[in-house]
Write a structure and sequence with these properties.
Strand content: 35-45%
Number of helices: 3
Mean pLDDT: 87
Distance between the termini: 20 Å
Order of helices and strands: HEEEEEHEH
Radius of gyration: 15 Å
Largest sheet: 6 strands, antiparallel
Number of domains: 1
């Protein structure tokens, strides 16, 4: 997600790894079963990123479905200002989660053409840390 026009030194609040930490502040990593990270889209004010989260529910056969919708605006120096919308949409049987995800995206009005990156975490912190490192961030 890092834009090659900028040579930021230090943490980038608009990086995918930083965006995921915003999600972890709302849903504990141990509760996150699967993430769908959609590719960054260019929009008028900067960039837009959507992440869909399937989190464990009290019923092991169900998942809670959340969306995180990030808008990233950057200064001329590349410093990011991130606005996040975070909503819980449903608790659904595991088999229905992909269908719920598509409906949520339609309601968000996102014109998503590319497939998301699907990451099965299973609530495992080590898998989370590996994902963060793969995205260029630092583990918790």
């Amino acid at each position: 997600m890092n834009n090659p026009k900028w040579a930021n030194i230090g943490e980038d609040a608009g990086s995918t790894s930083a965006l995921l930490y915003n999600i972890a502040e709302r849903v504990p990593i141990a509760e996150i079963d699967t993430l769908w990270i959609f590719p960054t889209r260019k929009i008028a004010i900067g960039e837009s990123v959507v992440v869909v989260v399937a989190a464990f529910d009290a019923d092991e056969h169900r998942r809670r479905v959340f969306t995180a919708h990030f808008t990233i605006a950057r200064t001329k120096k590349g410093d990011a200002t991130v606005t996040m919308g975070f909503d819980e949409h449903a608790s659904a049987p595991v088999s229905a989660v992909p269908r719920i995800m598509q409906g949520v995206l339609r309601r968000l009005g996102e014109d998503i053409e590319a497939s998301p990156r699907e990451e099965a975490l299973g609530g495992d912190v080590a898998t989370w840390d590996a994902l963060i490192v793969d995205l260029g961030g630092r583990p918790a």
